[in-house]
User: What shape does this take?
Amino acid sequence: MHIPDGLISAPINIATAVVSVGVGAAAVARARRTLGEKNVPILGVSAAFVFAAQMLNFPVAAGTSGHFLGALLVALLLGPLNGFLVMAVVLVIQSFLFADGGLTALGTNIFNMGIVGGLGGYGLFRLMTLVLPRRRGVFVASAAVSAWFSVVLAASVCAVELALSGTSPLKLALPAMAGVHVLIGIGEGIISAVVVSLMLGVRPDLVLAWKPQ
Amino acid sequence: MKKYIFPFLLAAIGVCLLLAAFLAPFASSSPDGLERVAEDQGFLGRAEGRQVWKSAPVPDYEMPGVGGSGIATALAGVAGTLIVFGLALGLGRLLVRGRSRPGRPAAEDAGESIPR
Assistant: This one.
């Protein structure tokens, strides 16, 4: 859901850019204090995985594809703010080097995928861990559900922005965007669950959100 | 038991590069969710010719000047994967550095930092 130039109005692009820079500054400030030496390589590998996996469009319906987002996954591995930094790095490179996502919409894309998707999905995940038992299977299932949710939420916010920009009325854009991303989100859930499951198998210490009883 | 990061790191980046090189060329080329909606609802045209940054060296994930779109996609994927890996790693190093004080035992993380 990388938005190109021309679809989102300037006020929205500016507002989302301001929010994204603010969250970015908070993430940098926090990372300066708390990012562990051990997590630095994971930051790099997470960005590499998100970039590579985002290239793998899978078909979801006739003539429509979707791809992995990764915001929730990296939030689980590194914490939500470090995860945001990973997403921001990937989105900036995609826009500047690969013409994927417009330059004027960069703030909106970072806002939607990094903040709404990443922090929103992570919020749901934390809520689930509050009420559910701390077991590996539950952790993986919660990751899958929150990953699905992160994509649907980000797509819905994207629809609202399109409507506010006068690009498409909300009553058309919202059901269409949410509808197709309900399907794409299933892929997100599966990929996130597989990766989390593998990580818990080989290096549970590198999954920051994993706190066994 | 001290767990070393390097073997994991190597394996993980290897998987990422394999995905980019060997799966990306076979990815679906159908429009994604947003493009599909934009097409269906007739606002895709609003983005046409509106591209602001026109100097992207690898537009559409195809390395220019390489015959065969599969190879071009694979090269673009490998290049992009390495670039974001390097940038995120560099950013992380920058953020962690400056915090470590001279008095701190330097060997604390020695087994877990990657060799320079």
Observations:
- The longest strand of chain A covers residues 58-61.
- Chain A has a mean pLDDT of 97.
